Amino acid sequence: MGFVQVIRNGLSATALVAAVSCFGASLTPSLMPRDPMIQAALAAVAASLGYEVALLVRALWRYMEIPDIKGRFLWVWWATALLISTGILVYSLSKAASWQNATRTAVDLPPLDTAAPFFIFAVGGLMFLGFWAGFRLAGVLRRFVARQLDRVVPRKVGVVLSIALVGWFFWALIDGALVRSTLRAADASFEAADVLIEPNIAQPQDPSKTGSPASLVKWDEMGRWGRHFVASVPSVPEISEFQDGPVLEPVRVYVGRRSADTAEARADLALQELIRVGGFDRSVLIVMVPVGTGWMDPGAHDTLDFMLAGDVATVSVQYSYLTSMLALLAHPDYGVAQSRALFDRIYDYWTTLPKDDRPQFYVHGLSQGAFNSQATLPLFDMLGDPIQGAMWAGSPFFSRYWTEVRDQRNEDSPAWRPTFGNGSLVRVMDQYGGLEGDYRPWGPIRAVFLNYGSDPIVNFTFDSAVRPPAWLNQPRAPDVSERLSWFPVVTMLQLALDSMFALDVPRFGHYYVAPDYIDAWAAVVEPKGWSKERADQLKDIFSRRGPAF
Q1: What are φ and ψ of residue 428, in 5° steps?
Q2: Which of 143, 148, 172, 370 would be 395's cystine partner, CB 3.0–4.6 Å?
Q3: How far apart, in whole angstroms, are the C-alpha atoms of residue 52 and residue 129?
Q4: For 75-94, b where at least 16 C-beta lie within 10 A, e where not — what string?
Q5: What are the pLDDT digits (tens) for 408-426?
Q6: CB atoms closer than 10 angstroms to residue 246
Q7: Bridge-based pairing state of the strands 389-393 and 360-366
Q8: What angle do CA 517, 30, 327 make, to 5 degrees?
Q9: CB-CB contact of 303 with 231 (8 Å)
Q10: What is the pLDDT of residue 185?
Q11: What are the percentages of helix, strand and coil residues in the chain, rounded to 5?
Q12: What is the per-residue pLDDT for 549?
């Protein structure tokens, strides 16, 4: 088949209209604001998928031998398609700034003067041409393989086999040569960063602290974020700024990925270190699951240290060097295995202690940490001797208990802040509230989900490619634009891309902040003498402290 014929087979007026329609739809409001380069990349991917799907429909149409447009009518349709496509392009690019500002307004960002429509068109168009050429190359290869197979198998069998073989070849090429190599390089890079000991983080010298010379956990094996975690514990004078009574220095135990070879060994080490430093002598014990790199949000644990006057012990174990998304791709089982091993070791020991002389037991996780914690919390197995509760922030859409609460919510509650049952076990909050309502009093176990309505990591679902997600129904979350519309496939792509930039805007998306952690923890642990005034006082302290890292 000649070059000209390849080009002709890859052109279609209907596919052009489909591509431009997807291009325009990708510029409409979403959950997170995007810069022009990201917008152009999304538009190119959406347009390419729209174009190739339309070509697939055309191929099926011809395969079924349904009459096609020919002759003069074909030229008329091409002229009409070009006119329609031009109109869609001009309209969507002229509205790009308005649509982007609708998203920015919902997340309290100032509006843009322009969304760089010419840049989006030029860069997106070049990317689209690259994708188009790649698909044509795949088609040429498919037809070459089919011709070779025609010699040994029936033609239709050869067509099916050629599609399967070429598809497998490209998947193996991408997965093996690109994805896996990238993940290996990323793992090595992140591990190197994890090993680096920052000169401004001093090793604790107090024998009662994790990471000290007397500790069971070696300082240089704790990892970057583990060292930050134990070295940045709020001091007694700092906590005394908020607390008038007796104050303790919080207990923090952290075991790094390099501290032991297996998840079980790291969990055993964490338990022995927690016993050594007196963690079970505190009033509250938190098993905290970090995100992929081992990082934990200071807004979650520092606030609790202040609220409880330091009478709290927190234990955590690192399971990866990679970011959460890369960790899920490279080794999705590591986090679950480590979370399960840690919880089981701590819980089994805790149940051996006298019930009237042991700490209250809670679990916490943010993002992938929330997913891993929920995946491994044996709710039914511990009902005979239950822990006191859980606080999960930014639970990814596939998280075990969050999925149950969202999908089995009370009918009169929205998907972005559902109510579940009578509210005596589970409550869901965001930055606008949710903990107060027509609920029964809390039972012996309290679980609070802290999720923002604009968080794409919480809201993403694969079926948003074929039907509108429930969180788009009215009423919408205050931080979701009323101008956000659903488009098949495109909306799923928008959410997937938004997930990569969900940490850009504080108190929106996936960027959770101290004031909301304070309200969530207050509902779970119920500190003595707590009130709105006390909460506002602590929020003011943390607003002045600013980010820890």
Answers
A1: -120, 135
A2: 370
A3: 12
A4: eeebeebeeebeebbeebbe
A5: 999 999 999 999 999 999 9
A6: 10
A7: parallel
A8: 60
A9: no
A10: 58
A11: 55, 5, 40
A12: 42
Listed residue (2, 13, 137) closest to 68, CA to CA: 13
Which pairing describes strands 312-317 and 251-255: parallel, antiparallel, or unpaired?
parallel
Question: Distance of CA 207 to CAs 20, 200, 218, 407, 473, Å?
Answer: 66, 20, 12, 49, 56
Classify 500 as helix, strand or coil. Answer: helix
Q: Coil, helix or strand for 450?
A: strand
Residues recorded for the chain:
549
How many angstroms separate the CA atoms of 478 and 313, rounded?
Answer: 36
The answer to whether the beta carbons of residues 482 and 476 sit under 8 Å apart is yes
Query: Are 211 and 223 a contacting pair, CB within 8 Å?
Result: no
Q: Which two tokens stand for residue 144?
A: 């070459």
Beta carbons within 8 Å of 92's beta carbon, 6+ residues apart: 23, 24, 25, 27
The 8 Å CB, 24+ separation contacts for 9-14 are 9/139, 10/55, 10/132, 10/135, 10/136, 10/139, 12/51, 12/54, 12/55, 12/58, 13/74, 13/77, 13/78, 13/80, 13/81, 13/82, 14/54, 14/57, 14/58, 14/77, 14/81
Centre a 10 Å sphere on the Cβ of residue 136 and count the other Cβ atoms it contains.
15
For the four alpha carbons of 66, 70, 73 and 77, in that order, the dihedral sign comes to positive
- 486: tokens are 């659903």
Low-confidence stretches of the chain (pLDDT beneath 70): 1-10, 65, 69, 156, 170, 172-197, 199, 321-332, 546-549
Of 324, 317, 457, 448, the residue nearest 374 (C-alpha): 448
Q: How far apart are CA 134 and CA 532, in angstroms?
A: 59
Q: Are 543 and 467 in contact (CB under 8 A)?
A: no
What whole-number distance in Å separates Cα of residue 214 and Cα of residue 43?
Answer: 57
- Alpha helices (H) in 36-154, listed in sequence order: 36-63, 71-106, 117-149
Q: For residue 443, what are the contacts with CB-CB under 8 A and spacing of at least 6? A: 424, 425
Q: Helices 298-307 & 532-545, crossing angle to 10 degrees? A: 130
Share of the chain above pLDDT 70, in %: 89
The first and second tokens of residue 177, run together, are 């040569």
Q: pTM to 2 decimals?
A: 0.86
The arrangement of strands across the sheet holding 312-317 comes to 251-255, 312-317, 284-289, 360-366, 389-393, 446-450, 426-429
Identity of the residue numbered 408 = Q
Question: What kind and span of H or E run contains 539?
Answer: helix 532-545
* DSSP per-residue string spanning 142-207: HHHHHHHHTTTS-HHHHHHHHHHHHHHHHHHIIIIIIIIHHHHHHHHHHHHHHHPPPTTSPPP--T
In the block, residue with structure tokens 């559902």 = 418
Give me the long-range contacts of 97-105 (CB less than 8 A, separation at least 24). 99/27, 99/28, 99/29, 99/483, 100/27, 100/29, 100/33, 100/34, 100/39, 102/29, 102/481, 102/482, 102/483, 102/484, 103/29, 103/30, 103/31, 103/32, 103/33, 103/481, 103/484, 104/33, 105/481
